[in-house]
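Supplementary Methods S3. Input chains for the assembly prediction are listed below.
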Amino acid sequence: MSVTAPSPTRPARRPLRRDTDHKVIAGVCAGAARTLRIDPLVLRVAFVLATVLSGVGIPIYIGMSVMVPPDSGAPPIAARLRARPGSWQVGAGVGCLTLAALLTVRELGLWWSDAIVWPFVLAAAGGALVWRHVTARPATDATPPAALVTDADPEPVLDEPELRRLRLRGVYQGGFGVALVVGAALLFLQANGALTGARDLVLSLVVVTLGLGLVLLPFWLRLVRGLAAERSARIRSQERAEVAAHLHDSVLQTLALVQKRADDPRAVATLARRQERELRAWLSGTPQARPDERLADALQAAADDTEERFGTPVEVVAVGDRDLDDRGRALVAAAREALANAARHGGPDAGPIALFLETGDGRTEVFVRDRGPGFDMAAVPADRRGVRESIIGRMARHGGRAAVHSTPGQGTEVELVLDD
Amino acid sequence: MTEVPTVVLVDDHALFRAGVRAELEGRVRIVGEAGDVDAAVAKITRHAPDVVLLDVHLPGGGGVEILRRLATEAPEARCLALSVSDDPEDVIAVIRAGARGYVTKTISGPDLADAIRRVHDGDAVFSPRLAGFVLDAFAGNTSRGVPSGAADPELDQLTAREREVLRHIARGYLYKEIAQRLGISVKTVEAHVSAVLRKLQLSSRHELSRWAVERRLID
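Predicted structure tokens for the full assembly:
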């Protein structure tokens, strides 16, 4: 959702809410910018300037973040704090109690010196925050990417804004802790008079660092951009190499074979069809066929084999699919026999064989149809076992049935049925 | 067949156009050829052919773009899609954009001429594979995947007879064979197929809308 460009489809100006999805601190600038339809960066710079120049930025920001409700529809923080005793009260209470205890001890004289105890307390608090943050890290940082990767899940555990929020919170907690510890160290050094000599050094270091940063920043930015460009170029060339390798292994090989066997039209047609099938599957990005597990894939494999053996094209149309069990395997074997018969008797000039699979309504049906000369079932001698044994008998043994419909001159259709 | 239908042939491969022209010699009259979207629309509006043979993949937006522009510039043009691709996305996209039928380029010359005549007569042309897609997309008698409050629930389901006709097409039967087997007239078979085509174009079933949305056919 872009907040920079006013989109014509947006019905009305949105009420002032904190935009917690795009927040840096509390989403005040992002929310206000969304309402005003300007870039949040403008407001952020304005706030920083107001803070640096007069210090007025901080109270305004805090006030707004407490009073303005977030865009989740929840009441503003001020209302929530009044309504429900939260962890902030516990935190403040613990702080007050600690302070009171420390002051009492100080008054009683059980005290080393201000220069040791106050920095120690600060450092302990900061250290605790940092440690909590570090030990909690695996929980907040490792799970969200995993949740993002399993995209196919019906309910992704965390979305992008949520992840960002968690990351921000981690940065703030850690940063606050580090600031406390560093402050404590400085306070300790200051109290012991160790800082006076270092101040000049630190000042010059800061100035030099800022200057260097200003000079080097553009170079660094360019480097980062260059790296990104190089990376995408590398990905492109890898993809290209992959496509080239595939075409080499498949299409170019087939073309070479076609040239060698140009005198055998049937072989050329078979080669072309096989290559076409393979390339089509590759282009459409269909998942790897699993002829050992899925019925439709197994039938397709049987059809491919028939094409290879007899040179007759087989058009497979599958409506629905099911897992391949023993009965399904028997069905495939019977269909394979029917395809072989159709190819053998129909001949390559009778046009393609049609194989139709439909599953659903508690049954699985397969039809194999050819446009060959057809035959009279009653006239088939009883010792010809092909159709009777390997098609009709096999289906009957597995609790299904088979029928052969054929009229001389109109082709043949074999019907195979399995009831669930 | 008293008159030979006029045809404009749209395909970006000149070699393929030459092949189709040779195969259809004497069966139809090819009045124009085009290799890209703009030329195709210009030729079709100029010649007003009975049938447009339309490749799905073309430079300049593809067959879908031509169909979209014809809808305003030459709404009476009847198009038959002819493509190497039999991806469901491609098939459903051109049908929903207004094509009256879909056949793959492996079709034989006589069958193609027959399909052209059928489209010329105002009927729909379904290849076995397209029939399979439709059965798949309309699978289940429940309103699975149909947005609630759909304009016309009739559009989202096939009648038993329509399913039976589609099943026979998928099994490789010709219209006249289907008519014979089901004990109805060829005209009735054609009417069923036309009804299915209409449902395919107008249905709001989720499976179809998804394909259409992916191809930016509807917003």
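Chain A is about 65% helix and 10% strand. The radius of gyration of chain A is 38 Å.
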